[in-house]
Amino acid sequence: MRSRLLLSATATLALGLLPSSSASAQQRLNPVIDLVAANKPVFGLYAPANRRARPGQPALPADSLKSMSQLAAEALAYKRLDYLFEGTMEYNFEQTFPLFTEFAKAMDTGGALSKGKNPRFSHPIFVKTMEIAPDPAAAVARIGKQLNEGVNGIVFVDVLNAAELRQGIAALRFKSKGGTRSDDVGNAPARWGMSEKEYMERADLWPLNPKGELYNFTIVESKEGLSHIREIAAVPGVGVLFPGAGTLRGVFTTTDASGQRKFDEAAWEAAIQSVLAACKEYKVPCGYPAGAPDIEKRMKEGFSVFVIGWGDQGFKAVDLGRAASGR
User: Fold this and answer.
1) What digits encode the pLDDT tens for the residues 199-242?
2) Is the bond leading into 61 cis (omega within 30 degrees of zero)?
3) Alpha-carbon torsion, ordered 153, 154, 158, 159, to 10 deg
4) Cα 27 from Cα 9, distance rounded (Å)
5) d(CA 243, CA 85)
6) Burial of 315 (0-12, 13-18, 19+ CB in 10 A)
7) d(CA 151, CA 96)
8) What is the pLDDT of residues 99-143, one digit of tens each?
9) Residue 164 phi/psi, 5° resolution?
């Protein structure tokens, strides 16, 4: 009798709890959120892009440039990333946004969203948006346009203080959710494989909304932002907090009277560690723009979300990070 009860309990677990848990994990469209919620490291790559001619150099031959469809196919062919990081819209939004719309459409056509009962993005797209502080109203409009192309996350650059971050977070949320986003949703519902009504329910910010599918990255890359890093980290709804390591190298580089440039590596590293300390204090995931030489070191320090350059060295960095984490 006891054996039959044990077998019955085991069967209940096998047939009930396990499929339910598995299904729950599969229902989320945005796998980045699942990884963050599970305290697992996240590895993203810059989207593949055409080479640019250097200043003063002739333009690259037209036949050497790949179309947005070709770049999307290249991105989709690489399967070991957790998300794509698209950084072209940080500047010259009006010029770069039309190209991004072509890329987003090509990603959709190429199958970035797995269809079926539990749809899921294989290559969720996180996009940089222009600075919010100079013109918050324009920032809301730009972010709305990006969201309407079905992106999964917005990256705020050069955030200076908590008030600016709150404005960015509000721009990710519909007015019905207490935000400032327009009810115009553009192509997003189709890209997410759902009705407009369902999209407006699910396109909210995690973790403020436990069922939300949108997520934000926040980059601090100035001395002013660093001076407010604790208040920035404390803002409800902040997703991942990044030190803008590349830009901060310039911030901590000076030119002396002889014209020699001097990089203060100790101050630069202290700035990076101040961001990490704020992340740990406020229990916010901390991101870093890593490469193969430093990804394992930064993982040991406590960084957990990485953006990495596209190409062989970037793929190597992903492999190193996955191996170090057991993923």
Assistant:
1) 999 999 999 999 999 999 999 999 999 999 999 999 999 999 99
2) no
3) -90
4) 26
5) 16
6) middle
7) 15
8) 999 999 999 999 999 988 889 999 999 999 999 999 999 999 999
9) -65, -45
